[in-house]
Protein: N-acetylglucosamine-6-phosphate deacetylase
Organism: Thermaerobacter composti
Amino acid sequence: MTRWILRNARAVTPEGIRDPARIVVEDGRIVAIDNVTRVGQSDRDQVVDCGGGWVVPGFVDLHVHGGGGGDFMVPDPASHRRAARFHARHGTTGLVATTVTASPGDTLAAITALRASAEAPNPGGARLLGIHLEGPYLNPARRGAQNPRWMRDPDPVELETWLHAAGPYLKLLTLAPERGRAAECIRRATQAGVVVAAGHSDATYEQVTSAVEAGLSHVIHTFNGMRGLHHREPGVAGAALDLEALTCELIADGLHVHPAALRLVYRVKGPGGTVLVTDAIAAAGLPDGSYDLGGLRIRVAGGRAELADGSSLAGSTLTMDRAVRNAVRCMGVSIVEAVTMASTTPARLIGWGHRKGRLAPGYDADLVLLDASLRVRATMVEGRFVHGPGAGGGDDVP
């Protein structure tokens, strides 16, 4: 099997920046990170000269609906592969495929198909690390671009069906904690190892606090689709900032959250409590135009996705590499801190922190090569280049 040697790199490691660095990859794992500059090759070695560019751990996107025309709600592995390949071109090496609010039958079909894709051999894109159910237990008052037709109270019996269908791949469950029987579902899901998040919620601060006592530990797309911060009723946003138990997602696309609010979350939560996500939809990477999202018509213009009537943003066309660049530029963080929010913290959150999200010996060789402007030159997933030097063929993506 090929042994890859990445030399002349600026590596972001758990100990900080190592420059210059040599990274040795064998059998899908990182076997060494050192400062050796001269490489003695064997016949099976492939050497990549990084030219002094950055090598960072692959990005882990916990909230992504699709991209490049691929949609994770479509029960078709070809659609899943297309999205995974698109995002790999932008540095994502692992993702949690995210659903939208839909009928019981469509939700179950999506879960079943996504589990099959997660268990299948990786054909050359980001690896599906799990499933994120965003809905249907949401509040229509904060529906955003989720279809209110299918929103309903949490159902413990239905949840058991989902847990059985998803097996170990159900990683995230988003619900509105103020809805009936939410606490019961939170306790059952956390017992099964699922991270439960608040989202599309009109809960009060006290209702979120009670949900945290039941096991709620995460907040999706902070400030969006939730009761906002008020000095007499802090709401979901206030609880997200105040309660240490809650990690916070941010969509750093310049549209969903003002830079000042991005900085506020970071100052309160730090890199270990903040997660960069895309919330990308199938239209990410495609031309402007009209698209479908969970049965709702949306329009994309200049990269901005919104409902056709303009009443709400509708996911995003963001990619993780752009989220990292925006974090560095708009939040004033270092590349180390940005990578922690894009790789290390999300991997830890969903139980993959022992294998992914870090450049360290023994970890999966999920790597991204970035140039000086933090644009992706190459992506490696578990020791295989899926974009850049040595990458195989596969479906064309935008």
